[in-house]
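Reopening this ticket.

The earlier resolution said the output was attached, but the attachment link was broken on my side. Pasting everything inline this time so it's all in one place.
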Amino acid sequence: MLNLLMKAHERKKCFMRYFNDVDIKRQVNIEFANFSDRREDFADVDSFRDRGKMDKKTWWIVHGAYAPTLQNITLKLLVQSCSSCCCERN
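Inline output:
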């Protein structure tokens, strides 16, 4: 339970950092709720079936159009390098 609360808190901080406009932040929260709860267009059979079969970037490109604001930030985060080699070189 504590882990879920920590994730929710971190997600809220992230959304606050990226979206200053209250209306846009509200839209992102709605998009995230639809994604998390598999509601509306995310309830589509193909969307649900592809979640575990496609890599995350491809899935968001194919099915993320239902949540354009969330898709935009997700793709930005997914293309970031997760290597520490730059830090190690310095």
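Reporter confirms the inline version is readable. The helical segments are 2-18, 22-36, 45-50, 56-63, 68-78, 85-89. DSSP finds six helices and no strands in the chain.
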